[in-house]
Batch of 3 targets.
Target 1
Amino acid sequence: MGILSTLFGQSTNQLTEYIAKGAIYLDVRTEREFNTNHIKKSLNIPLQELLYRIDEIKKAGKPVIVYCASGARSSSATRFLKQNGIDAINGGGISKVRNAIFS
């Protein structure tokens, strides 16, 4: 995995693969950002709450596509999820994930 994909998200092909697996969309932006604009059926757990709410994700038992505004927060969240045994990828910014869903 290159530095750019680590920071700004995976390729569209990998996003498409995770979408096909029935992945959960995890929005790690603030509640205010989420309420302004989000992907339908996504789960909002702000990055600063992830440590305390990880069981919500584990219970789902599905892979996770993490997104935020630009890809920086989702990169941190993805690392944390992987360290805790969750199959997760950094989707990057919301626009990139949305484009992958509708392509």
Note: Residues 3-8 have pLDDT under 50 and may be disordered.
Target 2
Amino acid sequence: MSSDKIELPLDLSYLYEISDHDREFIYEMIMTIVKNTPEMLDEIEEKGEVEDWYAVGRLMHKLKPSLLLLNIDNLSTLIRELEANAKAPKNIELIPDQIAELRKLCDLILSELDKLIKSDQF
């Protein structure tokens, strides 16, 4: 993993589509992601540290719907792979790195969502 700055363009087009361009709905969805994701990530990391793969898979399943709304390809791929690996369990040697990558991407996304909310640019 390089320390280069990652660019993750947030794509809210799917949110606009499913909400019929309802800004209040979009705001509520963004706020739900901002509010719930950090706690879910903490739980995923805790369960990963004790190698409770079933719990990691279950938590990923709960986290997945809201993050997939953001239409970020590499995040979507990571979420699906991590959930599948944890639920099987298979490729368990990859799971700790996948969890670390998930944290890194989500921290960046949460920062970007926070900027969108503060600037009212969603």
Note: The chain has five helices and no strands.
Target 3
Amino acid sequence: MSHFDAATAAVQAALDAGARYADARVMHRRYESMSARNGDIEELSQNEDAGIGVRALVGSSWGFYAVPDLSDGAARAAGGRAAEIAAASARVAGPGVDLVPAEAVTASWASPCESDPLSVALSDKGDMLAHATKTMREHGSDVAEGLYQIWDTSKWFVSSEGHRIDQHIRECGAGISATVIGDGETQRRSYPSYRGQYGTRGWELVAGLDLEAHAGRIAEEARELLAAPLCPAGETTLILGGEQLALQIHESVGHAIELDRILGWEAAFAGTSWLDLNQLGTLHYGSELMNITIDPTIPGALGSFGFDDEGTPATKRDAVRGGRWVGVLAGRDSAAVAGLDYGGSVRADGWGRLPMVRMTNVGLEPGPHTLDEIIAATDDGVLMDINRSWSIDDRRLNFQFGCEIGWEIKNGRRGRMLRNPTYTGIGPVFWRSMDMLSSETVAWGTPNCGKGQPGQVGHTGHPAAPARFTNVRVGVRA
């Protein structure tokens, strides 16, 4: 059987068993990662799997069933089982729900890729990590680590409404970190971020990072941090680097605008959201500089795709425009419940998981300034960059973040280095204080976003640039 044949058989079996809607995803996934420590390769991981996952809708209830078998009999059995599970749930659930309409399409899509990352010689990849970590050791790092990861995913999607879509998504990324140990103090510096940089591109992304060229610098900065003064405590003007702002967007905006969380569907594990649908279109989330988009069409960004896992085509939408909250991340069922007319943000991390609302590329549109201009316009403040720790409550409202490195800003100039910089705030208060924003945007990739029960790991993108915030509490009081 072809992959489309297996998905079609599963969908038909679900309909024959009483489902009013059904869809099936066949997936073939390959994964490879390698890590190095102190100049030596530490671990190589390679795995591959394939299977089919079927959703069936009966009344207001979903049923889901998945098997690692693409034969006709197994596919049909999975479809029937999904419908049985949905029917059992429907007996104790409320009235049926509609799905937001979606045009049935036949289509193919593939992410851009100049150099197939799985075809690059393992020896070349290993040499890259070994040389970078060796260089960090030579420049003073006590523990020097490097990592790359590669995902190669093919999908075939069929729905009872007539969808027939195949996609090929290749993702990869890499990063290095240097850790130094002092007397009662440990410091770390990372490049290009604390977890590396990732995207839906080929090996050209990793090659462009040029890890070894930055290895010596970050090791030296990590050692400098041991002797740097602590970040002072108090309220001040805060400038965040783009990488840290990307995580700020992820935690205090991206998760908060997930419609399943707003509706309370995710309360059991991931928490809910402070947002109220009655305020959609009127709530002032941030300052006028705050323009957040949901955009899975960005070429090469980690949250990009051609179609989500419900067959909805990738479409750019506003989440916040001019500081006003105007949009959410939604699926066809949650959008219908909320009275909205769009979905497009549903994905699963494999054939064996039920698709759910996930972030795509949730990012901040660029502003009119540069980082140098922001620093020059700041009389007194702190610049922080590269995430080190994060904590946020289960409504995505109160947060505390720590960064790897900070710098004192005095009279429009970057001054001495600061260690253990931290800041805290309340989401809408923080975002309303943003008064300068850079145009130097990078689409940062987050390959480790957790959500769901059973847990799923999502790949998300966050375009962000350096920005300035006023009256922010920084540091830790003695």
Note: The mean pLDDT is 96.
